[in-house]
Write a structure and sequence with these properties.
- By secondary structure, the chain is α/β, with parallel strands linked by helices.
- The protein has a domain of 224 residues: 3-Layer(bba) Sandwich (FAD/NAD(P)-binding domain).
- It has 13 helices and 21 strands.
- Strands 7-6-15-16-17-14-18-21 form an 8-stranded mixed sheet, with helices on both faces. Strands 9-3-2-13-20-19 form a 6-stranded mixed sheet. A 4-stranded mixed sheet has the order 1-12-11-10, with no helix packed on it.
- Helix 2 packs parallel to helix 6 and helix 10 runs antiparallel to helix 11.
- The structure holds flavin-adenine dinucleotide.
Length: 426
């Protein structure tokens, strides 16, 4: 928390260009980008800022595209992230009845993406980086606290009012936050989205993503594995040191049983599912369960309001795109607002918000629908579907241009990239 925000009296009025509700990874990135463009903002979160970085708050690791990494470099967050960032050199996708395919000896239908293939275009960047969320949150928090962003956490919005002159968020303790624009970066159950009357469309897959960190006794060589098994996708994502983050998709009841299982029983299941190709495996730290579904907001904007991150869209983690989409939203919205301020426009004006909605709406919808199609294609063990998808994987695997297109998409380098994600200052 910045000293100025911590010391504000309970009846104080804090005025900024933009009020951001939600200091998660998307909200914090937007705050940093706005500050870099000399716009003032206040970042509010219902939980204490320090709690968001505690190891037991979020046990996930995220595959971060190299484009998002470039953006964080510009915003000064990469120094603190570097010691915890594992380069993803290869992605190996297998469609089989048992795990255990290795990079040298893949079994069944498989697809391999290799960063060496795009090294010429990428300047030696990997396919992406795998970083534990707690380290991302801590690095962003450190950068935010060193910036001019005002942070109020904990702070809970009690009332939101939008008027011609601007927006006012009144917190439960009476403090009032005033700005030209309100940004909802407050996650899947966004209060800002509901308050603005923006509906959502979507569905649950009935699956749970069980997340755990494991220690392995062989080098993973920076390879991310996605095994499509009859029970659901099983991802083994390389972390720094001889560690990996697992995202183990199971039907709801089985997922709950895995969370409840004793450490011995969990490890026994794990060994059966994991196979022997990475040597011995040992669970480390707590397990976490996430219900999996698709949710898309009907609109990215409303009167003096914009949504970013999971408040706008939440997708299945199968392709590691959710946070990357949110970071693209943050970079695009910051660019639109900084440009509008230079032109002397009202940051909350519909004409300004329309530019953001047009920029990100189609891309978000495309990624969400592609992720959904991918999830459904690999959710079935029907022999006919399996034959067709295995043939598709074989075709992509043989065509260099197709592989490079998938790599550009996964690396976040496709489409109309905001300046920040091209590594340029805002
Ligand atoms: C198992 C799993 C694995 C994943 N792996 C990847 C991956 O590899 N790559 C990837 O790109 N994505 C991945 N994702 C998706 C990614 O985790 C999310 O997209 C991302 O965390 C969303 O960030 P956010 O900042 O938008 O929202 P959140 O992280 O939900 O942050 C919202 C913030 O708002 C605050 N808040 C909520 N309500 C209020 C309120 N009323 N007032 C004030 N503050 C409030 C919360 O305290 C929180 O800090 C994965 C998801 C899952 C489930």
């Amino acid at each position: 928390m910045t000293p100025s925000a911590r010391n504000t009296p309970a009846d104080a009025e804090i005025v900024a260009d933009v009020v951001i509700v939600g200091a998660g990874m998307a909200g914090a990135t937007l705050a940093l980008a706005l500050a870099a463009g000399n716009l003032s903002c206040v970042l509010v979160d219902s939980r204490p800022f320090e709690a968001l970085t505690a190891p037991d708050f979020d046990g996930r690791a995220s595959a971060i595209s190299f484009a998002a990494w470039r953006g964080w470099r510009v915003l000064g967050a990469v120094g603190a992230l570097e010691p915890h960032a594992q380069r993803i050199e290869q992605i190996l996708v297998t469609d089989g009845r048992a795990p255990g395919a290795s990079v040298r000896r893949p079994s069944g239908a498989w697809l391999r993406f290799d960063s060496a293939e795009i090294a010429g275009r990428n300047g030696g960047e990997p396919l992406g980086y795998l970083i534990e969320n707690r380290h991302i949150r801590a690095a962003l928090a450190q950068a935010v606290l060193a910036s001019r962003v005002q942070v109020i956490a904990p702070g809970k919005a009690a009332q939101i009012s939008r008027e011609a002159g601007g927006v006012t968020v009144t917190l439960e303790d009476g403090r009032r936050l005033k700005g030209s624009l309100l940004v909802g970066a407050d996650g899947k159950a966004s209060r800002v989205r509901q308050d603005a009357g923006i509906g959502t469309a979507g569905w649950n897959y009935g699956d749970t993503g069980v997340v755990a960190t494991v220690r392995i006794n062989r080098d993973h060589e920076g390879v991310a594995y996605e095994h499509f098994l009859p029970g659901g996708p099983f991802a083994i994502l390389p972390l720094t040191g001889r560690r990996a983050s697992l995202v183990w998709t199971e039907k709801k009841a089985r997922g709950a049983a895995l969370i409840r299982a004793s450490p011995e029983a969990f490890e026994a299941h794990l060994r059966r599912r994991f196979g022997a190709f990475l040597g011995q495996v040992e669970a480390e730290g707590p397990r976490f369960a996430y219900p999996l579904g698709l949710q898309i907001a009907d609109s990215l904007t409303a009167y003096r309001t914009a949504l970013i991150g999971d408040a706008a869209h939440s997708v299945h983690p199968i392709a590691g795109q959710g946070l990357n989409m949110g970071l693209k939203d943050a970079a695009a919205l910051a660019e639109v607002l900084i440009e509008a301020a230079r032109l002397g426009e009202d940051l909350g004006a519909a004409v300004v918000l329309d530019r953001y909605a047009r920029w990100r709406g189609v891309d978000n919808m495309g990624v969400a629908l592609a992720t959904d199609a991918f999830t459904r294609l690999f959710a079935t063990d029907h022999p006919l579907v399996r034959t067709v998808r295995d043939a598709g994987m074989a075709v992509v695997n043989r065509i260099g241009a197709a592989r490079r297109m998938f790599m550009a998409e996964a690396g976040g380098a496709s489409g109309d990239l905001p300046r920040l994600l091209r590594g340029e200052s805002v």
